[in-house]
Amino acid sequence: MKHLLLVFLGGGLGSGLRFLIGKYLNPVISGFYLGTFLANVIGCLLIGMVLGASLRNQYVNPVQSALLASGFCGGFTTFSSFSLEQFGLLRDGNYLPFLFYTLGSLVVGLLAVALGFWLSRWF
């Protein structure tokens, strides 16, 4: 039950922060959801760091991992929003932004997870 409450708390904090980032950054570049993109990349980096630290040296315990990885990062990253935005770009015929947004999110997100694992060596 403790883990569930921590996931709930972390998810709420992550979702709130994602909302604010999207609200202020999505309008910056027309046809590109900068806030969602950055939330996904930052979430990938953070989850890589948290899980890397947990696996490498047990620096992050299961309770902290529930709060940070499952909770905060799960609430902060936005795959459902990402998919809805992709659909909107395709529906509106914005194929080039769709391509950049999709490939950029996947490639940069994967690189951010790898970077997070690499950075976790120092904590």
UniProtKB/TrEMBL annotation:
<dbReference type="GO" id="GO:0005886">
    <property type="term" value="C:plasma membrane"/>
</dbReference>
<keyword id="KW-0915">Sodium</keyword>
<feature type="transmembrane region" description="Helical">
    <location>
        <begin position="65"/>
        <end position="84"/>
    </location>
</feature>
<feature type="binding site">
    <location>
        <position position="77"/>
    </location>
    <ligand>
        <name>Na(+)</name>
    </ligand>
</feature>
<keyword id="KW-1133">Transmembrane helix</keyword>
<dbReference type="Pfam" id="PF02537">
    <property type="entry name" value="CRCB"/>
</dbReference>
<feature type="transmembrane region" description="Helical">
    <location>
        <begin position="32"/>
        <end position="53"/>
    </location>
</feature>
<keyword id="KW-0406">Ion transport</keyword>
<keyword id="KW-0472">Membrane</keyword>
<keyword id="KW-0407">Ion channel</keyword>
<dbReference type="GO" id="GO:0140114">
    <property type="term" value="P:cellular detoxification of fluoride"/>
</dbReference>
<comment type="similarity">
    <text>Belongs to the fluoride channel Fluc/FEX (TC 1.A.43) family.</text>
</comment>
<keyword id="KW-0997">Cell inner membrane</keyword>
<keyword id="KW-1003">Cell membrane</keyword>
<dbReference type="GO" id="GO:0046872">
    <property type="term" value="F:metal ion binding"/>
</dbReference>
<dbReference type="GO" id="GO:0062054">
    <property type="term" value="F:fluoride channel activity"/>
</dbReference>
<dbReference type="InterPro" id="IPR003691">
    <property type="entry name" value="FluC"/>
</dbReference>
<keyword id="KW-0812">Transmembrane</keyword>
<comment type="function">
    <text>Fluoride-specific ion channel. Important for reducing fluoride concentration in the cell, thus reducing its toxicity.</text>
</comment>
<keyword id="KW-0479">Metal-binding</keyword>
<feature type="binding site">
    <location>
        <position position="74"/>
    </location>
    <ligand>
        <name>Na(+)</name>
    </ligand>
</feature>
<keyword id="KW-0813">Transport</keyword>
<feature type="transmembrane region" description="Helical">
    <location>
        <begin position="96"/>
        <end position="119"/>
    </location>
</feature>
<protein>
    <recommendedName>
        <fullName>Fluoride-specific ion channel FluC</fullName>
    </recommendedName>
</protein>
